[in-house]
Design a protein that fits this description.
Strand content: 5-15%
Number of helices: 8
Radius of gyration: 17 Å
Distance between the termini: 63 Å
Number of strands: 5
Helix content: 40-55%
Mean pLDDT: 79
Structural class: mainly alpha
Amino acid sequence: MHRRRTTTTARTATIAAVVGALFTVPGLAGCGGGGLTPGTAAVLDGRRIPVDAVEARVAALRRSPGGVSADARGETEGPARRAVTELVLDAVVARAVADRGPAVADAEVAAARAEEERRLGGAGRLARALAAQGVPAEAIDDRLGRELGIRRLAATAGADADTPVGDAAVRRILAATATALHLRVNPRYGTWDPDRAALAPVVRARPAD
């Protein structure tokens, strides 16, 4: 029987269409952020993701080896947009999974983490691998739970998350869930594209010559 690759790197690559290429999407119409209260990065079903949480995540990444490249340490927009994307996707995937049941259990996340640490050669290597993807150490369990959730969502559609069919099925589920949650994102971080289940940079008009 063929053994499926289960390392963090392999898993991220195989479902990259959902959780990987989040910053290459052209600016498309999505849920706007107008009318959000000050200090709010995003709102889902009336629950806020505060700007403070985004800034704390970016700060944690800057402290993580490999979390933010030396060239990007002076930037704010890219790392902050990545942080908002991660926080939004965590919430959307968790809700989509909960709606379809059963939710991903803590024991499943712990088992996945132990397996990844074993395969990558220790907790430190896992932390560095995920920091390079915008995930600080304190959010590792959230990311692993999200990946398990994505696989579960694909399975509910009778598909494998590692295939184009599974990826498309997950995208449809996440788009419907984000719509049901009335997701709104502060425009300073980008625009949510429901068709791609991704946060895209804002495309600013070039000044006229």
